[in-house]
Structure to design on (181 residues):
């Protein structure tokens, strides 16, 4: 399976990237590839609430022609989506929120919704004890389902792992996710 990954962490060597690297190992072992993008290097603008995406008489993709459309075109053409973001102060960070905000143009009230066959993997990292933000993370994962993706794995990683070191089980899970995409 070919995948496209969006990492919303500005730390290019942080927890999100370490987990994505392990998933990528599994993808490659399974004959696929993974194209990784960092949000802070992409040209993705905020939703301008023009509602052109909601016009059922004249359907159109989001009128903002930026890297969000490029990534979602890859997902629409058959690539799985991996989305990794850190949690700051109990919420997804601003870069992750910016990406997900653009889902507004792809909900079931638009003609742009995906067909439900695409796969998504959601990763959230945080410093609190493991499991602390599970309810929040699962709620955010449902946003990916609202645009027509099948969320096949949600990985919430607390306690600042794997950078802290003691993370063999998490990295094993991550590789398994990649092998099973």
């Amino acid at each position: 399976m070919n995948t496209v990954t969006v990492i919303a962490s500005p730390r290019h060597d942080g927890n999100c990237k370490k987990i994505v690297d392990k998933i990528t190992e599994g993808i490659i072992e399974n004959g696929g590839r993974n194209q990784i993008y960092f949000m802070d290097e992409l040209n993705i603008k905020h939703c301008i609430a023009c509602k052109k995406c909601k016009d059922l008489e004249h359907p159109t993709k989001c009128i903002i022609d930026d890297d969000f459309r490029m990534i979602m075109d890859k997902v629409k053409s058959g690539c799985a989506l991996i989305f990794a973001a850190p949690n700051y102060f109990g919420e997804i960070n601003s870069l992750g929120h910016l990406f997900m905000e653009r889902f507004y143009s792809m909900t079931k009230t638009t003609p742009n919704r995906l067909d439900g066959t695409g796969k998504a993997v959601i990763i959230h990292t945080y410093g609190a004890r493991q499991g602390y933000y599970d309810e929040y993370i699962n709620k955010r994962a449902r946003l990916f389902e609202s645009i027509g993706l099948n969320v096949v794995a949600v990985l919430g990683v607390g306690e600042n792992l794997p950078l802290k070191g003691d993370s063999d089980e998490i990295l094993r899970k991550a590789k398994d996710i990649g092998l099973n995409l």
Observations:
- DSSP finds five helices and six strands in the chain.
